[in-house]
Methyltransferase domain-containing protein
Amino acid sequence: MSSMRPVQSVSTAELYERWAKVYDTDGNILQAIDDVQLPALLESAFAPFQATNPAAVLELGCGTGRNTVKLLSPPYASQISKVTAVDLSASMLAVAQSRCRDRSQGPSRTPAVEFSQYDALHPTALPGFQPVDLILSTLVLEHLPLATFFAAVKSLLKPGGTLVITNMHSEMGARSQAGFVDPESGEKIRGLSFAHEIEQVLDFSKSLGFLPVGDVVERGIEEKDLGDGVVGERGRKWVGISVWFGLVLRLED
Ligand SMILES: C[S@@+](CC[C@H](N)C(=O)[O-])C[C@H]1O[C@@H](n2cnc3c(N)ncnc32)[C@H](O)[C@@H]1O
């Protein structure tokens, strides 16, 4: 049935302006896998930071704040002084702001969080921004050439800083690209994705002075993920295929 669906190819900016309204509820498998896999990467990345030595953090491509809100919650909240969350899409940012406003009304202390529109393809200075100790960027790299992504990161990160990246795996990228079904029109809306291979990411980032901390983690979809409810039925066609990878990098001093 889905092969009969009309498909519309749009720019990345338009994709996320339209996707924002259903991004958190349309059963996207990459978000589900990212939720399961990210904590181990964050644990490694935040290990050097404590309440007495908190990290200034920037989230590049924060989207609807799916992971921003995790940074404002235990165990990370006490290890962070401030979160700057940036994204290309005003609609995605609006959802993130609303989600984090709810969080900051909670009982426990949360780090300050500031949202800004920012396009890594055409970067402009963020007012009052100082390079940070740690950058988190989940499921964003596929939208950008490696040179653009890492140039943006390098301009925003302190020397010696840490970068946590998660991304669509190239095995999935060879078969698909970011997109969603617009519930209003019934159309499949898809954008431009790059199927970056892990070796390419490691080689390119190394040329700019980034070195891996620990191993690159790769994750496929297994039958068990459907049985356990980790992913919904949309995951069935991806069984046996690597869909996600994540890694922590450190920028040389
Ligand atoms: C798949 S979503 C991921 C959102 C969020 N990080 C998450 O994991 O749920 C990709 C995000 O990257 C943002 N993005 C794409 N291209 C960008 C660019 N050139 N500059 C900044 N953000 C960009 C999109 O607007 C979108 O919110």
